[in-house]
């Protein structure tokens, strides 16, 4: 009896709980927070498989993503039960997701019509070049005045265009009015609110602003942009604010997580916006950097969109309520950060785990002049150069795998320095410290290197799950839920750790200058418009150097045969 009473009193003390689905590029998580203290009570994580069907292609299975969400919810509910925490205390659920990743599904069968094309994917490079070539002055910023974005492989519109042009099932579903387009948030919300039986087809302003179909001034889909890409507006989800009730959860009652049925899904933010909210960067001029698969530095610019002159994106940071104003951000996006760790582990076998990378790099404490530019998907901010490819340079006979490991960590820091420099130039107010979050921040050597290379302190919160926290805050603060107050006086004090710069600025500048030199060497590696052989395959002759090499070799062979024959 006493045990039951203790459990009950414990439940009462916790107050209302809010959950978050955090669907990232490499994993899915379900996390439950105490809305009064922002304390993380329980969570579960499942890794997501990525497939690489061809060079530069990156795909994920939408059904596996959905299944991973169900599994995370199920396991977290089991853990809460073991902790004597009442699941019915969860009052709202927020969704945060990898942005730009694109999928199309059949609204009548509920089946995806192709794999999700991941934000990193490069298959649309020829589509992008074709679009840029038809703009006045071949200007990649032709749509920036409406979208805040350059025309790039990164954003959803070109991925959707590729699906429409290359996947018969998608084309047929659009013609027969059965197709639904969405980023991962739309797919999850639609499925979790009933799917083909009344699921809600929506997205929020932050995810919509990453499609190149959304006008960041009118805050809605733009008919001219849709015409430009040839995309029918009827397949697009309805755009909502980041904090309102979209629909109620519908889950099979036989599952442990069936207890979540009927709970409102009331928060939705793209992962980088969610991290900005979770870091409580609500003031104009506050910024955060998230180290995940990629690296994303966002600066809150307030109620006005600021256009960048230095290669940054203008994006919607959040809109926390239907009647609340939209807040904008400048964003520097780096494609490869944590992904370089996975590459060293899976492709090269240099390390067995991410923890091993820190030990390996720390064992030498320097890259010994080795520089690693991980431009696996071209270069994002501030260059927007899809022709770049990864290089490791400055090698000597002395270089070993530990130096390469150190150079990989430095690469993440140098890329952050480039976008921070661009941001300081655009905003005119240099950041005095950098707030950080994301999986890679557990690497203490990386955090120290980052402070050394930026020459400013790096501040890391003790609770690293700021992306999920941001989604939970948006869900809990929604009208009709109102269990989480976002007023500055009510926000919990965040404990954090500070890394101060420990090297002199001259050494930092010298290393940075050499990095810039390495970046130049990585440029113009891949050539332009691939030549198709009619089967959707790219001809080897589309690579100019390789084409010349093969043609040259053929002439040499013919010449050699001719000379041999004439003797």
TrEMBL record:
Group of enzyme by EC: transferase
GO CC list: mitochondrial outer membrane
E.C. designation(s): 2.7.1.30
Keyword ATP-binding: yes
Subcellular location: Cytoplasm; Mitochondrion outer membrane
Keywords carried by this UniProt record: ATP-binding, Cytoplasm, Glycerol metabolism, Kinase, Membrane, Mitochondrion, Mitochondrion outer membrane, Nucleotide-binding, Transferase
Boundaries of every Carbohydrate kinase FGGY C-terminal domain copy: 288-478
GO molecular function, one term: ATP binding
Domain of life where this protein originates: Eukaryota
Protein name per its UniProtKB record: glycerol kinase
Source organism of this protein record: Solea senegalensis
